[in-house]
Amino acid sequence: MKFSSYHIIKKIGQGGNGVVYKARHMVTGQVVALKILNKDLDIRRLKNEVRLHASLKHPNIVTLLDLVSDNNKSALVLEYVEGWNLDEYIEKHKLTLKEKRELFLKILEPIEFLHSKNIIHRDLKFGNIKVLEDGNIKLLDFGISYGISTPKLTKEGFFVGTIYYTAPERIKGINKIQSDIWSLGVIYYEMLTGERLINGSTTKENLKILNSEKYTFSRLNNFNQLDTKVLKKCLRNDYRKRYNSIKDLRKDLVSESDNSKSYYPRFNLHYNPKWIIIPFLIVVVLLSYKLVQKPDSKQEDYETCVEFKFYPKNAVLKLNNGKIIKGGDVLCGNHRQSFEGTLSAKGYRTKYVPIYLPPVKKRKQLYYTLEK
User: Fold this and answer.
1) Which residues are catalytic?
2) Which of 32, 54, 185, 366 is most exposed, with minimal Cβ within 10 Å?
3) Is 83 left (phi over 0), alpha (psi -120 to 50) or beta?
């Protein structure tokens, strides 16, 4: 099967606007993701997606390469990304709660970039966040994204998006930066718990849950103090009471994480009676481990390294410990270490940068971009 100049290899996804295939250019051999759009797609929505996506150049956003057509159908040619959807990655790698928090902080990077361009993604969900082998992420699908010049494309009384991740105000036709922050709150909740926050069996039931802040908040009381604070602020029913920006959200997660006594949910017997057996199980596990543990056994420690790539290339990263890092420099340390610093360049906005050394021995590259 072929489309335009591309040989289709296999189907890799499907959304409301079309079907995505892995494909190869028949002349150059380049492997791409080919998003063949539905024939009945409003041409204004196609133009909006292409215009917004083409304006986005960021290492954590999948690149739009071309727009092609065949047999009265249009298709977006996109960078092909090998990896896992966010939920698949968490399940496969059995992430700890601390690692989930670190991964969530990475997800904030491209969203903050979008918002700096006055673009709202409007469809943030697990399926639109791809995690690569090295732990970096790629943000996908700008089919319903909203910018300053986006025309009104949705009929009165309707909304586009996925109900489980859609902010309450969007049901009323209101689009705000804070709408994405709501979606991020839902994603973070589901990353931590493995279950849906909005879990009704019908659309009507989900809408009722969506507008019930009291119900939402009752689900958030089972976390430690830090995560409870962040989730409740992200998921306020009134968008004006949420975080005003990704920067404010990140600040709470990073600046207070060191003061949080635990990454684990607080015991709440009323909410979850299963907690009552956990102390007993912990004692049994510890005793069993003590019996089988070898006297000299130690948890493996190893050094890991990251190489930095900056845009612009003359940007300089100054760590809190005084160390200066330039593009191409390599930072090594124990795989459990983390650093903080400030990235700056003349003529560009300064940016706070949290750095987490990866839990893999293979060197990985970290990309950071400054905006004017």
Assistant:
1) 123
2) 54
3) left
Q: 84-152+159-257 belongs to which homologous superfamily?
A: Transferase(Phosphotransferase) domain 1 (1.10.510.10)
Closest CA to 371 of 10, 55, 45, 128: 55
Summarize pLDDT for 18-34 with one digit per residue, the tens: 899 999 999 999 999 99
pLDDT beneath 50: ranges in the chain:
258-275, 292-299
Rounded CA-CA distance 36/352 in Å is 38
- At the second CATH level, the architecture of 2-79 is 2-Layer Sandwich (3.30)
The domain limits of the chain are 2-79, 84-152+159-257, 303-369
Burial zone of 294 (CB within 10 Å; 0-12 exposed, 13-18 middle, 19+ buried): exposed
Q: Give the C-alpha distances (Å, rounded to integers) separating 270 from 62, 195, 274, 371.
A: 44, 19, 10, 48
* Residue located via tokens 């499907």: 14
pTM of the full structure: 0.67
Give me the CATH code for the 303-369 domain, please: 2.60.40
